[in-house]
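In the previous chapter we treated chains in isolation. Here, by contrast, the input contains two separate entities that must be folded as one system, with a combined length of 574 residues.
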Amino acid sequence: MQKNITDIQNEIIENFELFDGDMESTLFYLMDLGKKLPVMPVEHKTDDFIVKGCQSKVWLYPTFTDGKVVFEADSNTEITKGLVSLLVQVWSNQTPDDILNSELFFIEKIGMSRMIGSQRSNGFASMIKQIRMYALAYKASGS
Amino acid sequence: MSKLDITAIRSKFPILDQKVNGKPLVYFDNAATTQKPQAVIDALVKYYKTDNANIHRAAHTLAARSTDMFEATRKTIQAFINAKEVEECIFTKGVTESINLVAQSWGRKVLQAGDEVIITTMEHHSNIVPWQLICEEKGAILKVIPINDKGELLMDEYEKMLSSKTKMVACVWVSNALGTINPVKEIIAKAHAVGAKVLLDGAQACSHLTVDVQDLDCDFLAVSSHKLYGPTGVGVLYGKRALLENMPPYQGGGEMIKEVSFEKTTYNEIPYKFEAGTPNIGDVIAFKYALDFVSETGKENIAAHENALLKHCVDGLMAINNSLTGTSTSLSDRNSMSSAVETKPITLIGTAKEKVSVQSFVINGLHHFDAGMLLDSKGIAVRTGHHCTQPLMNCLGIDGTIRASFSVYNTLEEVDVFLEAVKKLLKLSNK
């Protein structure tokens, strides 16, 4: 059974609390999370699936199966890959409605915006926007 | 090693005494902007507390004080770059505006279809785009001097490019991404031999090298305040009087007019002809104290200290390479920029013989953004990315570097902290 978006976010917050705000350990943890993402097939890493507005390269590839959106993701930098893996963790395997109705509260709680600075925050915001756009498109098409 | 008391110098820079992410700040992003001494900060505060007034017009005391202090900075910069006349120093908002001024004013008047403008592969975007704009408008051709693997200009190729069609050589004096000091005196002499003018982008050079525009015989020099311990938003364009007098105004309004009627406007004398609107008065005034700091410290002393920091850093990076590969890195390896990126843990980018205290490098297997953030987590500020020199990065076949750039207030101990952090990054990237 897929956990709901709120529970997943609470788990992420709990995990990050272990680092007590220490930036270096948090970054290492993020990089490890990125490494755990399933390898994205090369044929999905095309320009069409690059998230615009990120300093690093980020690919986000959606599929829609059994009423749920599944995301594959990758990045050319380890830290960004860790960041996008968090979004995949929260939003992959959820219905378009759940994605669109959910509020992302974990980012603020784990102090990510303080850590990644405004430049990367913009990139992070672009990833979030892109995920919501895909969800909206699937909801609209109903397929 | 230099004769400077670095502890005393550091005490003049209050920003350095702080912790970032729980670690003492190590600021190695000086090529982007330098920190400001207390005297500069005090001058800025004093201006707004006691002297704030618009300059050159009003009859009251505050205006007289502001005007005098503003013009005192002009005299100081004149001496700093050894301009023949104070009127040859125009205040701008920075190097970018200085270059745009020349491209738009001189370029629009002089350039014609088929004329050629020469720049170099290692230009910052601000010395590329203004020339692209005016060349496109006038039908002129932009040519680019190539570089070798060390990051040095191919002077033979430059000579081949020069002809009677060459009207301008716009060249960076010191590369912000590589640290290379270009042989500008030779570049200028060769350009003049074919009747071309030369603009030097002095953004990086002026904080490290002795500047003598008369000895160089450059036609234009763009100077930045904030890379020279002064405030942001202030720059200087030096130009030879004869050239400036023949150039049309760049922007209209304010200080640049002599008389305005609806039928005709006559323009002010230089330098005011090019200083439209109310300038950045407080910051220009504070800039003088930055120039005084450099003069009092002594350019030669600064250079000696910075060179020692650079050498310590380069030796340290090479020692890390050797300890990890178990082989000795020879000078010829050090001089190879791109060929070894795939094989060695660290590859130095920019190994010119003549360099200032800037070292770019890449770490095999670790993206420069990740490296920058991990170093930041240890309180170390370096620049990562393409350094606003994308054509140069393309030429080198990389998408960015990690760049450590040193200033007079940095210490050998800080370099050691940095080297230890790099060692840790390498372990991480080899995991």
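DSSP finds 15 helices and 17 strands in chain B. The CA atoms of residues 240 and 425 of chain B lie 49 Å apart. Compare these points with the single-chain example from earlier in the chapter.
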